[in-house]
Amino acid sequence: MLRRKINRRVTKTKTNTVFLHLSPPLHRFFLSCPNFITQSTSALDTAAAATDIATLVLESDPKSLRGSLHGLQLQFTPELVDKVLKRLWFHGPKALQFFKHLEYHPSYAHSASSFDHAIDIAGRMRDYKTVWALVARMRARRIGPSSKTFAIIAERFVAAGKPDRAIKVFLSMREHGCPQDLHSFNTILDILCKSKRVEMAYNNLFKVLRGKFKADVVSYNIIANGWCLIKRTPKALEVLKEMVERGLTPTITTYNILLKGYFRAGQLKEAWEFFLQMKEREVEIDVVTYTTMVHGFGVVGEIKRARKVFNEMVGEGILPSTATYNAMIQVLCKKDSVENAVLMFEEMVKKGYVPNLTTYNVVIRGLFHAGNMDKAMEFIERMKTDGCEPNVQTYNVAIRYFCDAGDVEKGLSMFEKMGQGSLPNLDTYNVLISAMFVRKKSEDLVVAGKLLLEMVDRGFIPRKFTFNRVLNGLLLTGNQAFAKEILRLQSKCGRLPRQFKL
DNA sequence: TTAGGGTTAG
């Protein structure tokens, strides 16, 4: 009971007081509480325990953390450790400290999955020395590294703008005791293609190694999709030709990739002709094909054609999926009217479909956009009663539109409602902080400052621009003391303008 | 973490 209370204090956010910490006595109680998690734990208990431990890690003195962790009367499990690492995602150094302390735990040994998480975190911090040290330790313990581990590392290199190093990682797998196969080959190709490095994937990897790994339909599809992602449909078509020449039969996925590629490149005519060709060649058109068509026509405002395709699929005996409805509803919102979108929503419900998070978010955004705030809020309530919890996007949309409409209070009250499954992200803070400037009130600027403190506390680094803006605002409204505090924070975050020195 | 469809505005 008391644990729940503590939890709530720690995780709930209040705008005006901003981020509550455990008071020292409660903290001590928490540490000494012997049964706050028992041997047999439900998923809910694991989640709660993960939150508690993450808080403990964040608030403990680094020197005493190891002792605190080892002293806890609870059985660590791989699931629990993974959850804690996820909670500490934005606190890389702390997360790695936690991981390291547990490596020396008397009765717990890390799983491969936790190693992968830790490697992911170190990679995100671009701390490659730690990445490879962890890989070596995994190997020493004979629990990896696996192809998944290498996929994670490659992905991190690509995200850091080093695709060539990602390729090297793939090529070095065997040296680290991990066999390569067609699977891992396709994975690295996909990682490169999804980051729009298709040229490199094709020339430096695919062309060189497709013989060795016996490239299959999946490999070719990945490359074709890569070209489509950068709107180079002729190259994708070449790949299609090439695979046929090599005796591989394109699948429906191949065709759908090309079709989507045409729409993405704005080649409506080609898309339509390609669709007709698919029919002529008696390719087994599926629900993805139709969804692509509905969405493709809809986004360019061809609502009638989108509707026609939608109706046609039913005639062909192919049932729309929730994704198909989502596509239709989205384009109705954007290019037709939100009223018709709502009608479509009700129609799908009547037919027995269960709207998902995307469905709700699309309708809610449409309603806000049309200025129908009340109805949008009704839908937010409706999704909750439907057992579909609003996520960070739902809240961000609501906050953004309320603030844009000048109703800062409503925006703030939406922010306060955000909870466990929908914690604020960088976007949320940016929108809110900007909104604190519209009324030009001194109190608002203090709130902006507090939001800034809170976002840093949660591992988000504000832009220099945001810092300066808040700083100037506070100075102009006579909040000198608070401005000083913000300036110290700015320095800590390495976001200080050059002329400043503390 | 081997491939294809549906969520953002500025």
Structure report:
With 502 residues, the protein is an all-alpha fold. The chain has helices spanning 2-11, 24-32, 43-59, 62-71, 78-87, 92-103, 112-124, 128-140, 147-159, 163-171, 182-194, 198-213, 217-229, 233-245, 252-264, 268-280, 287-299, 303-315, 322-335, 338-350, 357-369, 373-385, 392-404, 408-417, 426-435, 442-457, 464-476, 480-492. It binds one DNA strand of 10 nucleotides through helix 9, helix 11, helix 13, helix 15 and helix 17. Keywords: Repeat. It comes from Cucumis sativus. GO terms for molecular function: mRNA binding.
Q: Would you spell out the secondary-structure blueprint of this structure?
A:
Layout: H1 2-11, H2 24-32, H3 43-59, H4 62-71, H5 78-87, H6 92-103, H7 112-124, H8 128-140, H9 147-159, H10 163-171, H11 182-194, H12 198-213, H13 217-229, H14 233-245, H15 252-264, H16 268-280, H17 287-299, H18 303-315, H19 322-335, H20 338-350, H21 357-369, H22 373-385, H23 392-404, H24 408-417, H25 426-435, H26 442-457, H27 464-476, H28 480-492
Helix pairs in contact: 1-3, 3-5, 4-6, 5-7, 6-7, 7-8, 7-9, 9-10, 9-11, 10-11, 11-12, 11-13, 12-13, 13-14, 13-15, 14-15, 15-16, 15-17, 16-17, 17-18, 17-19, 18-19, 19-20, 19-21, 20-21, 21-22, 21-23, 22-23, 23-24, 23-25, 25-26, 26-27, 26-28, 27-28
The chain binds one DNA strand of 10 nucleotides through α9, α11, α13, α15 and α17.
InterPro entries: PPR_rpt, TPR-like_helical_dom_sf
Pfam family, one: PPR
Keywords: Repeat
